[in-house]
Amino acid sequence: MRQRFWNRLTVIVGLSILLIAAGCGSGDESDEQGNAGSDNGETNYSEAVDYTITGIEPGAGISVTTEKAIEAYDSLYGWEVTLSSTAAMASELDKAIEDKEPIIITGWNPHWTFAKYPDMKYLDDPKGIYGDVEVIKTIARKGLKEDKPNAYKLIDQFKWEVEDMESIMYESKETGDDIETVAKRWVEDNQDKVSEWTKGVEGVDGVAFELVSTPWDSERSSAFVMKTVMENLGYDVKVTPVQVSVMFESVATGSGDASLAPWMPLTHKDFYEEYKGQFEDLGPNLEGAKIGLVVPSYMDIDSIEDLKPAK
What we know:
The chain has 2 domains: about 45-130 and about 295-305, Glycine betaine-binding periplasmic protein, domain 2 (D-Maltodextrin-Binding Protein, domain 2, 3-Layer(aba) Sandwich); about 135-290, Dipeptide-binding Protein, Domain 3 (Dipeptide-binding Protein, domain 3), CATH 3.10.105.10. The radius of gyration is 28 Å and the shape is globular. About 35% of the residues are buried. The protein is built from 13 helices and 10 strands. Strands 3, 4, 5, 8, 9 and 10 form a 6-stranded antiparallel sheet that branches. It has helices at about 1-35, 45-50, 60-70, 85-100, 110-115, 145, 150-155, 160-175, 180-190, 190-195, 215-230, 245-255, 270-275, and strands at about 50-55, 80, 105-110, 120, 135-140, 210-215, 235-240, 260, 265, 280-295.
């Protein structure tokens, strides 16, 4: 009897210990999940990207806007944006998509990344920090219409599509040819569009013209397309890539003739407002541009507000 009693007691004590251990284990697992958190119930993308947005050059319109977004969104509290170069950002994006890893970039289109990865998506921006659909404008120095009327008419008539610009950037990326070389091929293959731009424009003999641009492939595409068209009309064209603030200053002061690169109404708003009235605004040369935070399609997240603040 005494032996059976001690056997039963041993079993009861053993079961109690197991139940207590199981209960503690369940609590630990719950705590761990709670501490890890999640953006979408499964993956904590904020933690996975180390609360970091992969950006481009300092001073770019989208870089400035992203700093504003970090200040505006509680979900981005404690985040940072790495500012390096467009090429470095694209390289990180290629690597992440190849390995199916999370990444959040400062994205915009037209850009070759959207031609290469058409399923990428913008995160919703409920506060409207990045604005809505944008346009890329043409601006000219004061007096250009009087000094160089045919050049003025040409840049005023220049209009093309997002797909046109992206096709040049993507071909350059895929073939390794520089943007200027690809732009020349594009002009040869799209004479129907070129003929619309040059309608009523007379040729010249060696007239100098300076296009002020930015160093990014999107704006380099439009600049070198226009350079090719103008050179075919007899112009001596120089393309000068500079930072955004210098681009506006150059056209406003007359040291450059024109630019095809301003993004409005939001991306370059601060620079535009600073020099407003000191240049001519010829209106959009491209519609349907956009900027924002972009993620690969395999990331199950839809909004900036779905992210988590840094701990």
